[in-house]
Fold this sequence. Notes:
Blueprint: H1 2-12, H2 16-23, H3 28-40, E1 51-60, E2 63-74, E3 77-88, H4 95-115, E4 120-121, E5 124-125, E6 143-148, H5 159-167
Parallel strand pairs: 3-6
Antiparallel strand pairs: 1-2, 2-3, 4-5
Amino acid sequence: METLIDQLAHDAGIDPVEYRRGLFKNHSRHLAALNLVAEKGNWNRTLAPGRFKGIAVHEAFGSVVAIIAEVSVEKGVTKVHQVDCAIECGLAVNPDGVKAQMESGIIFSISMAMYGELTFVNGELQQNNFYDYRITRMYEAPRINVYIVDSKEKMGVPENVQFRQQHRL
C-alpha cells in the first residue's frame, strides 16, 4: 500500500511526506505520527551518496505508526542503516515498554524482509523454530530511534480484545 502511495506522490511531483500530509489532513493521529517522525527523523536531510530513504504510515491495534528507513544497496546487498519510528498509541503508560515493542517489531520486520523464507521438502516445512529461521543479528541491526507522540487519545487495544469484550467471549 505504501509503495503505491509513494508512486502516486512521485507521479504528482510531490514529496512523499507532503503527499501523505494531504491524505491525512482529517486524521489527526496519523498526521501527528507522520509529523513527529518527519521532524525527528530529519526527513529533509540530504543523504550520503548511495543512501536512500523511505517512509510509511500504518494503523493497527488502535495505534498509528510512521517509520522512516535509511538504506543502501552495495553489490546487490541491502543494508538498513537507520530506522526512525513515531507511534501514536494514546497515553503511553509504560514508554519504555512501547519503545521496546517497536524496536523488536522493527528488527523482526527487517528479518522478514531480508531473510524471510519458508521452504518445503516433500510437503514438509523445513523451518521449525527460531533456531533454523534467520533473524537479524545485533551486528546487522540498524540504529533505531523511537518517538512517542504526546497524546491524550484512547490507548490502543487489539481489535480481537475489543471484539471479545463487546461479545463477552
